[in-house]
């Protein structure tokens, strides 16, 4: 268990799994930059037990009939400093439905396939060994759907026998699988992903410091999974198989405040070789 203490602070870890010296490190372009101790980063957080801050509460998915996506706050760093996350959305299935509320474009391995000002609900389906968009011919290598407006992509899937509709930032990748289904992957900047996680893992009324602790844990876990899954076509699931991500429609002001206050900060430990390494920050609702 990590314990974060405030001014004149130190970062401690209990338990044999977390041997070594721990720190919170600012994030670099490729994931991890050797970091300073939290006290050197001028932390102003009161004592807080990270485990207690990480009690997860699942929040129901958003309805995107009238998308209410929060404007993304201005990032403290240039876009080049933002690692990308690849999030698998829901379950693999023979088909799903997509819509876009802004100018959009659809691309495949050979280039652009379609574009428009808005996209009404359109079925994407596994057909003929590839991913088919509406009545178009199937594309074996998969499709990518992008929108000019952030958070304008809407996805309707069947999850556990129930229909689910959500809004997403970034790009939607649609991949055919060998099992005759489609795999939907949301590709978006790490910090946007973290904002879509926090309100699904913490109660809305919890203290801002709890949100900050969860932001650090969620960001660190995401990067650890990203670094270990580079050979796959996605990094994390959008469910409790990883951590719960609800897309742009579930973001809250509290979530974005925590993201901005901890931007790029991750939990690390010092290896025997003296190098900073990411912790895999597992958390549990009843730890």
Radius of gyration using CA atoms only:
20 Å
Overall pLDDT confidence:
79
Estimate the global geometry from the Cα principal axes. globular
The share of residues in helices is 10-25%
- Major β-sheet, in short? 7 strands, mixed
Task: Please work out how many helical segments DSSP would assign.
Answer: 4
Low-pLDDT stretches are 1-67
Descriptive account of the structure:
The chain has about 290 residues and is of the alpha+beta class. Helix content is about 15%, strand content about 30%. The chain contains four helices and 18 strands. The strands form four sheets. It has a seven-stranded mixed beta sheet. Strand 17 and strand 18 form a beta hairpin. Helix 2 crosses helix 3 and helix 2 crosses helix 4. The chain is globular. The N terminus is likely disordered.
Topology record:
Elements: E1 2-4, E2 11-13, E3 21-26, E4 48-49, H1 50-53, E5 84-88, E6 95-100, E7 104-108, E8 111-116, E9 119-127, E10 130-133, E11 143-147, E12 153-159, E13 162-168, E14 171-176, E15 182-189, H2 190-201, H3 208-228, E16 236-237, H4 253-261, E17 265-270, E18 276-278
Helix pairs in contact: 2-3, 2-4, 3-4
